[in-house]
Amino acid sequence: MAKYLLISGSPRKGNTDFVLSRIFESIEGEKELIFLRDKNIGHCIGCLSCHTKPQCAINDDMTEIRQKMLSADMIIIGTPNYFDNVSGLLKDFIDRTHPFYKAALLKDKKLILIMVGGGKAEGSKEFLDVVMSGFVKYLGLDLMGSYCFQALYSNDLRQNPESNKQVEEIIKTIKIASLKEGREDLNLP
Ligand SMILES: Cc1cc2nc3c(=O)[nH]c(=O)nc-3n(C[C@H](O)[C@H](O)[C@H](O)COP(=O)(O)O)c2cc1C
Asked: pTM of whole model > 0.70?
């Protein structure tokens, strides 16, 4: 059974949570959906001690989240578009994954990225790929796909049947990626 870790970087129960929850309900296997807003995650203090040892000098909820990332087969990260960037919550999370960098502990781990912005989805897509490129490159992640949605108010995607099509597309990508790993237990639609 594949192991999935889903991470929401939205400070509210809105569109990013909606997309991630839909995916969470549709995939089979070991799975967990984490809401960063519920976690205690401090800023990276830039001590670089993780360059000597793949450990973080700060002991907070990121310690457990990093363990979960290590044991997952695929990580699915969602964020709202804030000023054509990720949310502050997600940026703190990203910085605190630095202990994976030198030791290449997350190399080739499968990743899916999702962003929801109030503007056009194509606009968010342009920025999502750029702002997440360092995270993908320096941690050596295997980016399976990046997807963007347009929605401004917290219930917008829930009320838009068109969004379902794209959510289905993401779910299909996840299932195909899992099949490539020899996970024949998953049933494709
Ligand atoms: C501080 C802030 C900055 C934002 N900046 C952008 C932006 O640059 N581009 C955009 O398309 N939407 C922007 N938005 C709109 C949000 O991306 C939008 O409301 C989205 O639905 C939030 O996702 P959520 O419901 O998952 O929190 C911004 C919203 C906030 C609160």
From this structure: yes
